[in-house]
Amino acid sequence: MFIEKLDRQQWSFSEVRQHILRLSKEQYEREKANKPVVPSPRPHWQGTYDPALDIPSKAESELLIALRDGDILAKGRLSKDRCGRIAGGFSLWEYHSGYHDPISPAQWRTGKLDPSYQLEFPEGQFIDIRIPRFMVLAIWPELPPDARPQTSGSETTYTTPYMDLMQAAIQQYGLSATHQDKKESLVAWFVEQEVDGELVSRNLAEAMATLIRLPQSQRGGAKRMIGPDVRETV
Length: 234
Description:
By secondary structure, the protein is of the alpha+beta class. 36% of the residues lie in helices and 17% in strands.
């Protein structure tokens, strides 16, 4: 049966966004190599503008347009139990379902996506949003090898599915030098992800959660302070 050959792998919203972003960057580099980009006229005090800066926002916009128009269908864990409100116009929801419900185009059009890729709409909230990989590849297929930008060996960026997953976690939780999420939360997220169709093991999730946090976040006790030695000297 043909249905038995269906690609059932699900990508998280962050993974789909990263896929579109990578393809958009590859396409931009290819177009830039074939035809130099002519910068638009700007006042001299504004300096030069790099069109590549718009790529991340355009990539996410493309994905949201496809979801709102029903070109691709996503699922998420739904909650209709509001328990409070927080700053920024978002609510707090609880008792999310343990299985994934379809998200309709109308819910995408009336909803608002928060920085952690959770969709809130007037009647509820979807978390852990997943999108079938085959739908994504139907709209944003991989570029053929001859269409990819040519780079020298020293410029080629090597990556692996595990490195991509760690980058997705950094984006998902907004990790930075000033914001470090709890390791337990990161581990819980990693063990729900799949690499090559298999769930990430607990040991691997622990390791990846450690690697994406700063070293000082791993140490307990008082934070080390850098400054002059004010101890008395004899």
